Model the fold of this input.
Amino acid sequence: MAFLKAATRSRRWIRWLGMVVTFAGWAIGTSARAETAAEYQVKAVFLFNFTHFVEWPPAAFKSPDAPLVIGIFGEDPFGRTLDDVVRGEKAGLHPLVVRRIHDPAEAADCHVLFVFRSAMSNFAAVLAAVRDHAVLTVGDGDDFARRGGMIRFVTASNKIRLRINLDAVRSAGLTVSSKLLRPADIVPAGGD
Amino acid sequence: MRSGRAAPRGAALALSLLVATAAATARGDVGAADNEISTLKKLSVDELMEIEVTSVTKEPERLLDAASSIEVVTSEDIARSGATSLPEALRLADNLDVAQKNAHDWAITARGFNTDLANKLLVLMDGRTIYTPLFSGVFWDRQDYLLEDIDRIEVISGPGGALWGANAVNGVINITSKSARDTQGWYVESAAGPELREDYGVRYGGQLASNVYFRVYGKYTNRDPQALESGSDASDSEHFGQGGFRLDAFAGSSDQFTLQGDLYNGTIGIATGGDSRLGGGNVLGRWSHTLTDGGTTSLQVYYDRTHLVQDVPGVIFAPAGTFVDDLDTWDIDFQHHFRWGGRNNLAWGTGYRWTHDTVGNAPALAFFPTTLDQGLFSAFVQDEISLRPDLRLTLGTKVEHNDYTGFEAEPSVRLQWNPTARQMLWAAVSRAVRTPSRIDRDLSEPAPGYLIVLLEGNPNFRSEEVLAYELGWRAEVAPGLAMSVSTFYNRYDDVRSTSISAPDPVFHLPFPFYFENNLEGDTYGAEWSANWQVLPAWRLHAGYTLLRENLWVRAGAFDYNNALNELGDPEQRWNLRSSFDLPHGIAVDADLRWVDDRPLNNAGEIVTIPSYTELDVQVAWKVTRHLELALVGRNLLHGQHLEYGISNATSIPEEIQRSIYGKASWRF
Done:
């Protein structure tokens, strides 16, 4: 009986091997499809790009090689992704670092500040803290731009668009490259 | 239910210390994601705007903000573990004690009470409860989902009654499947080996209109029998097929509609003889709406049907027979979340569940009445108050009305303090109840008319109750190193006991035995877990749980099982998991676990399942973007080992065999 069982088992393995070969054949014959990526992976890369397309006044840094801080206020939707994106990267001489903050008072120490949609209830306190500081505020809450945020991620047809409140950006002393402005939608102050 | 002898085995107060979550940092998409990130970073802003994004609402870092002992198993964790069933995937949550009884049955609990009919855990699949009102436990063998489509499994140890309601006494398992939008295209998997004989799964996801997505799936599993102590096969092989669909429609940015359903059918062998045929299905609809003030509402309705036909061995004068159970469940649930006054995050909701249960009694196992309709009304309210930016107080309660015990209230108070952005302390006090199940009230073993009834339910059986005190700490100790510690002290009252009748005048026999609520006790313990990203390509995870339990018979009362029947838990458990990404798309994962001695009750005496160490390993190779091959070894350290089970008239312990299988998965 034991012999019989071993025999039936080996047949199963042969069947499995056959399947693997078939699968490999199918896979090779398959062509590539449109690329997709996780939402917050793409948003993390956008944040990374902002550090290159936005210019901060020199006074925003303690020294020429001081870190450029990307802050995440409140709930963090990125997981490790944002850390992975900026690991070892620099903007000019400034090494990029990610900092997670919960107290609005710490917001002024950031250069880029991301506010997740769930953290919008404290947004007024954040805006008050960064007033008169060169902090680029970025968010994806529905009323982010209307309430005074600078760059809002808008998801439409599964693609991410940028809405930039240029007045708010400029009044903070920041300069945005045309490479970022051209593909973005510019909205007036208070617009959405 | 599985062993005809429900009463004398049953309960164990134990705690399982779970290692809690901690996963704060180290989760997320490692490996494959690294490649994607470097590709994305090379794109221009214009090109980035052309990328189609999938919104996996994952919110991983939220864990650092969760004031409870929560552990999240992600779809990536499941894929890397080589799990082929939900219980195997649940092994990844350190705060669960998962013991395999045989080829298809599992004993799963948090913080103790892992009895044969464990009943202190609430399990939800996409918002649909999957425990059976027969004994308030879960038939783990009738939940065979395609794991590829599972988005995450949240495991909360500790009471969740304030939000989730009755039976969330010691924990909640919340299984969420992916949106149809995130499962587009073909996925085909096939696995085979000596133990997992065959496992096939197919899913296809497509788009019906610009914002309407669907998927359909099917899965078939065939498992070889496990072994008796002698090494010979136990007759408990499993054949199980399941299929289903999910449809997600998005209307604007503020409305989402989901419609989903499953159908399943299977046959599983029972070691003591005969088999169990089960089938069923469910359909669920949900409408989620975002209000203009940022609040959200959700309305959910589902229908669930389960059908069970099980062979029951004979007992004393009652011959062998067949037990049939048909359960229909209708459920409607409404929830509203909103912010109020800048400091308050409010949630409230209400629901109603109606169940219609019909049993076909076997001579040796019967429930009366044979048809029972029950209604369960529930309402909850919760307010999360920001006292200071770093201090949050959450107050909440659920109130339910059930047909057995009337109104039950399950309040909870929770305080969360973030002294720095990278650590959090929390404390909670909660009350939760386990309301009676049919076995507590309606059981008759055997049915009347076979000379003698050995065990009976008790129409006066009350709810079991726990008052839980918890204290926890969660922190990102260093970059890449996250840690969590949860401690708890639980005080239990009115826990199930077994009483004996006054001896009859002729034979002086103390039958029938019957259930009462004569036990009380306390448990305490700690759950620790840590995640360490050692290198970009190497992650370690460690977990440890400690559980001490004391259960005693209330002064002046009696329990036939000497307060042992609610116990069944190891005092300590630990595990160590390593995930390594090698070049050329090769990933190596290993999971080593140690489980302490497990004491089980056998008619008032303890039988000890010896402690054991086991190892699971998966080596996976991503051959192309479309094809992945994996070789998986489970329980590699022993030819066979015992995890759970005692030997008596109606049950045979089964040992779990080493299992090796190969798997191919293909997506395009």
Chain A has six helices and eleven strands. Chain A touches chain B through 67 residues (CB under 8 Å). The CA atoms of residues 36 and 170 of chain A lie 34 Å apart. The radius of gyration of chain A is 24 Å.
